[in-house]
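Supplementary Methods. Inverse-folding protocol.

Structures were first reduced to a discrete structure-token string of length 388. This string, shown here, constituted the complete conditioning input.
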């Protein structure tokens, strides 16, 4: 309960919020930060952007810390889609018209690539399961026609960590292809280190909506060192450096870009989300909520949920835990259910917040929940599943 008191506006001690994998509660400091954003706008009007830039810098530093990439170049965006599409628009798709991905990607990548396939690009979708061999199968699909490999480090439907993606990174480097890793379900619930994972030359995307507790509008694209790509989808914020360099008044005949992550900059945005995110990152540091500590808490909580569920001894046809090695289970417990969507709705009616993806019911704990709350949620599941 010591941590829960800092999330009072979300009433985490009063509700069974098993939404830790999708929308964690925000600590109360975030509310105060959003108010500060309004006050800064009222006081400084257009001059507020200097303060907004300071908040953005703090958010970039927070993501560097979570990525284990202290010198990382971080582009910020309102969502991963705008960042991923800017990257896609920078690829040499005329010369390399092939994109390799999996059938287990989140909708951001899945939908966009499906649409690009309708326009004639070759989209190769590798089955995400079994995850044990996914990296090897992805690597084998990369050739000289491949522009990019797009893959999640943790599968969003089941929370399974994908091992061996350094093999894909090595193959991409040898073939001259770009690697984009979606780390959204990895960051801040499983420790992440760019170099030990073999991702030094990879683009990495993710955001703060889930385990980071930052809320909407806080996504990032980690840009590898020395990037010279020129996105076709480009915002005018990317030319700040270029405008300074050409301040003599002569217009450049070629569209200019800033360096590194600035190449992927957008345009005017709502800075309120960065005020909130910067305050939450500071809160995590103050309370020593490191990725390592959060991983230990998460593994304990997922184990409690799994043990309590398995003790129900339900018919596996009704529901069963999606099997995987325990050390590869990330931030939530995935249950395969015959009627996951209706079960989730019935649980919500009983005050237990979950969600579903197809036939998977997802139970996502969070560090502010107690063991008793987790047990109460499983008890509610038992009563719900046994309803006629």
């Amino acid at each position: 309960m010591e941590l829960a008191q800092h999330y009072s506006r979300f009433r985490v001690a009063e509700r069974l919020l098993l939404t830790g994998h999708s929308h964690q509660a925000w600590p109360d400091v975030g509310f105060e930060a959003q108010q500060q954003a309004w006050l800064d706008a009222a006081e400084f009007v257009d001059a507020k952007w200097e303060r907004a830039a300071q908040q953005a810098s703090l958010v970039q530093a927070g993501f560097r810390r979570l990525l284990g990439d202290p010198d990382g170049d971080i582009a910020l965006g309102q969502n991963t889609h705008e960042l991923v599409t800017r990257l896609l628009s920078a690829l040499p798709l005329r010369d390399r018209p092939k994109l390799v991905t999996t059938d287990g990607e989140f909708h951001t990548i899945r939908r966009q690539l499906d649409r690009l396939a309708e326009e004639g690009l070759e989209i190769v979708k590798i089955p995400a399961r079994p995850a044990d061999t996914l990296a090897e199968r992805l690597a084998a699909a990369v050739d000289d026609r491949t522009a990019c490999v797009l893959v999640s480090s943790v599968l969003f439907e089941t929370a399974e960590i994908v091992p061996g993606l350094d093999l894909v990174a090595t193959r991409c480097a040898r073939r001259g292809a770009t690697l984009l890793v979606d780390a959204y379900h990895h960051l801040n619930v499983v420790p992440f280190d760019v170099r030990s994972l073999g991702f030094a030359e990879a683009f990495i995307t993710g955001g703060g909506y889930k385990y980071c507790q930052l809320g909407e509008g806080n996504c990032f694209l980690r840009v590898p060192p020395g990037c010279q790509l020129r996105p076709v989808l480009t915002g005018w914020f990317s030319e700040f450096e270029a405008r300074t360099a050409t301040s003599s008044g002569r217009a450049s005949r070629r569209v200019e870009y800033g360096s590194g992550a600035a190449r992927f900059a957008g345009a005017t945005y709502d800075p309120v989300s960065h005020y909130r995110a910067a305050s939450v990152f500071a809160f995590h540091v103050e309370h020593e909520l490191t990725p390592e500590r959060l991983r230990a808490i998460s593994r304990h909580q997922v184990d409690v949920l799994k043990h309590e569920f398995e003790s129900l001894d339900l018919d596996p046809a009704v529901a069963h835990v999606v099997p995987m090695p325990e050390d590869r289970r990330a931030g939530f417990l995935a249950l395969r259910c015959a009627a996951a969507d209706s079960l989730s709705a019935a649980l919500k009616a009983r005050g237990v917040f979950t969600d579903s993806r197809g036939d998977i019911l997802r139970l996502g704990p969070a560090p502010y929940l107690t063991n008793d709350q987790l047990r109460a949620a499983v008890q509610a599941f038992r009563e719900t599943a046994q309803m006629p």
